[in-house]
Structures are given as C-alpha cells and as structure tokens.
Amino acid sequence: MSSDYGDHFLGSEIPQGGSAALFQILPVPYERTVSYGGGTALGPAAIIEASSQLEVWDGRSRPADLGIHTHPAVDCSGGEAEAVARIAAATAAIVNSGGMPVAIGGEHTVTGGVVQGLLDAGLRDFGVVQIDAHADLRDAYQGNPLSHASVMKRVVDLGIPLFQLGIRAYCEEEAAIRRQYGVHSLDADQLVPNNISAFELPADFPQQVFFTLDIDGMDPSIFPSTGTPVPGGLGWYQTLGLFESVASQRTVIGFDLMEFAPIEGFHAYQFAAAQLLYKMMGIVQRLR
Ligand SMILES: [Mn+2]
Fold first, then answer.
1. pLDDT, mean of residues 206-231
2. In sequence order, what are the residues at sequence separation of 6 or more whose Cβ sits closer than 8 angstroms to the Cβ of residue 7?
3. d(CA 107, ligand 1 centre) in Å
4. Cα 44 to ligand 1 centre (Å)
5. What is the Cα–Cα distance from 246 to 82, expressed in whole angstroms?
6. From ligand 1's centre to the CA of 135, what distance in Å?
7. What pLDDT is stored for residue 1 in this prediction?
8. Is the pTM of this model over 0.70?
9. Residue ranges per domain, the chain?
C-alpha cells in the first residue's frame, strides 16, 4: 500500500505510472453551469478514492500493466474560458507525451476543453462518440455557449463528426442541429428496449475516436449520482458493450467520464464509476 493511498487511481495497488504510462488520468473538478442538481466538482476525487477498492485483474486482463498515471486536478478557478483553456493545455500535454487522456469530470463542459486539447496537440481526423441522456447540442443554454448543455454543439462547430448513443432528452432546436450537422444517433428508445450493445459506425466515420461518457446516459437505477438524471437509460453491460463495439471498429484516442456527482453516504456509486473506467481501460488494452 503506497503512502499516498487515495491520491491516484488504483493507488492502493499500483505506483504512479509516470509519463510512460498509457492511461493518463486527468481529474477536472469543473462545475459552473449546473442546471439542476450539483456536486460534480466532487466527482473526480470520489472516483479516484474509490478506485483503491478495485482489483488489478479486471476479470479478463490487467489494464494496469499498461501503466496508469493520475495528474493533479486541473485548476478550474477563474473565468470559464480560462478554465477550459487549462483543461485543453493539460490534455494537449498528455497527448504530446504519448499518453492517452482519460478525463474525469466535472460537468460535461470539460469535454469541450479536452477535445480542444486533442486539436491543439495536432490530432486531426477524429470523431467523437457520446453516451448521454441529453443531446447537449443547444447553441447556448441560459445564455451561455460554454454550458454543459451546449458542449456537443461546440464539438460539431469545430467540424468534428459526432455519434450520439442513449439520448432521451432533447429539444426541437437540437433535433434541427442534428439534421443540419449530420449528427449520427442511436437513441435510448432504440437501444434500451432492444438491449442493443453493439452497432456499426458509418463507413465514413473517422478512424480515430474520442469517447465521452456522460454518466447520466446510463440508467439512474445504476447511477442516480448525477445532476440531471433521466429514466430509461443504458444498462451496465450495455454501456460497456457499446464502448467495446466502438473500440473494436476504431482506434480510441482517449475517453472521459463526466457529470458524476457523489451522494453522501452512498459509496457504491463512486466505486461503480471507478470500475467502469477501469473496465474501459481493459477494453482498450485487449483491443489494441
Ligand atoms: Mn452531457
């Protein structure tokens, strides 16, 4: 057991991986534009602390063998644009040193900074696959273009192809933006009742994919620990299956887990989030 148990992912089991580690965990306790329940600023620390309860063997392989390094939390103080720029800089530094960014939020606005960081590091020709309850395609929400409800509009505005999974809450403006930008989607009412956990990406979808997992895309019976829960979400195995389906067809260049807000006294949820992230690392490991 290391002396800084709880300070880094799987801290009870493995030392910090350093810059040679594949998985570079970036905690981003950014919380500004919460529209309903709060608490996402506490998400990264709760998940990292809970990760100490994980087994190094994930049931199929040992993702930790590729190295896991946990960065200090990104400073999210100051103006919104300033904080998003710090997220982008931290992400670009990870990519430039050969690591794979694994960001833990924080509200979904964080993903906009991470995607900007991928671009800043010179990555081109990648798509984004998003699991979410909400489309997040409003041009602005409550007057704010950096709202978590607008983050995927910022992504498509950059010309990045987007595939949405599990959406079940969106407005007419977002439906129009989907059509206008050619956003691909398999919504919750298609995936969940039919228990679909694999799908085919369009042939012209980029070969490299950044995968963003808004925890509210999953069902609130599994993760009530989020600000804007919506019933009818994805199941545990279904979510992992969809991620594996993407990773088996394309190269995953990074992923994130956003909008996790711990509920005091219910540690099951942060353990589940830590396990989900570790199982995603396992899928990346086994498919590379
Ligand atoms: Mn979202």
1. 97
2. 48, 70
3. 8
4. 16
5. 32
6. 7
7. 35
8. yes
9. 18-287
